[in-house]
Design goal:
Number of helices: 7
Membrane topology: Single-pass membrane protein
CATH topology of the largest domain: Tetrahydropterin Synthase, Chain A
CATH superfamily of the largest domain: Band 7 domain
Strand content: 15-25%
Mean pLDDT: 82
Number of strands: 10
Shape: rod-shaped
Main location: membrane
GO cellular component, one term: membrane
Helix content: 40-55%
Protein name: Band 7 domain-containing protein
Keywords: Membrane, Transmembrane, Transmembrane helix
CATH architecture of the largest domain: 2-Layer Sandwich
Distance between the termini: 96 Å
């Protein structure tokens, strides 16, 4: 079922017309003349038509039904008038926020994690929102959490390979994937998803300490690797400069000793204490 435009007209103009008709009919009322009853009936019917007046607020719509059949949606703002027999249901078209609860799922590597999301959505098709599901707000909440569970199980928490997309390291790609997953589930309910982002992401409490140690170890290894790369470059530069300027000639054994000493100095965590050799180098 798709949304269609419902019948309505300017409510102010309709009010003036029906009141004018009622006053004209009452002015023709004459108890002596038998036709006066007809004017009274017409006046009452004209006033009864005023029950077709309704108000439409900005970014809201009114879904019209007649004896169980959908006849259209009115989105024009202000005072409107339609057929009094139409049942008018108000539905908001404004942006809404939904923040899911923290749910526990397993990521792509099987690690238990806690994750939550914030979804910005609005009603795009009023007919589908009202008639395709019982409660579209509850439908959004349940399907958003289901999409979050499915999406989070497709990605790892941390990035282990160079090109691997992870929940923690690729927030933009993960948000787009989550938005697409939720939109596919909510399209049948006439809902448009404007934004979906992860609001909470952490390892589950039972493995949080172990994973923290793993992250710290990875950081230490990466830092050590960078320090060693820099130290090797500095040692290579020192030997090259000594050779170019012919400051001193070192045999292979002395070069190995110098390399060892420089690496100890450059890679040590604590400040090294120099030892002064007062004797001959040889």
């Amino acid at each position: 079922m798709k949304e269609t435009k419902g019948f309505s007209t300017n409510g102010y103009v309709a009010t003036v017309i029906f009141i004018a008709i009622a006053l004209a009919c009452l002015s023709q009322f004459n108890p002596v003349n038998g036709s006066g009853i007809l004017f009274v009936v017409l006046a009452v019917l004209s006033l009864a038509c005023l029950t077709g007046l309704f108000m439409v607020q900005p970014n809201q719509g009114r879904v019209l039904t007649l004896f169980g059949s959908y006849v259209g949606t009115v989105k024009e703002n202000g005072l409107r008038w339609t057929v009094p027999f139409f049942i008018r249901r108000n539905i908001s078209l404004r942006l809404r926020n939904f923040e899911s609860n923290k749910i526990k799922v397993n990521d792509a590597h099987g690690n238990p994690i806690e994750i939550a999301t914030v979804v910005v959505w609005s009603v795009n098709d009023t007919a589908e929102a009202v008639f395709e599901v019982d409660d579209y707000e509850s439908f959004v909440n349940i399907q958003s959490e289901a999409a979050l569970r499915n999406m989070s199980s497709a990605y790892p928490y941390d990035q282990h390979d160079g090109d691997e997309i992870a929940l923690r390291s690729h927030p933009i790609q993960v948000s787009e994937a989550l938005k697409t997953e939720i939109q596919d589930r909510l399209a049948k309910a006439g809902v448009k998803v404007h934004e979906a982002r992860i609001s909470h992401l952490a390892y589950a409490s039972e493995i949080a300490s172990a994973m923290l140690q793993r992250q710290q170890a990875s950081a230490i290894i990466a830092a050590r690797q960078k320090i060693v790369d820099g130290a090797v470059g500095m040692v290579e530069l020192a030997l090259s400069r000594l050779s170019e300027r012919e400051i001193v000639e070192l045999d292979e054994e002395r070069k190995a000793a110098m390399v060892s000493n420089l690496l100890v100095v450059l890679c040590a965590e604590q400040n090294t204490q120099p030892v002064v050799n007062a004797g001959s180098l040889y």
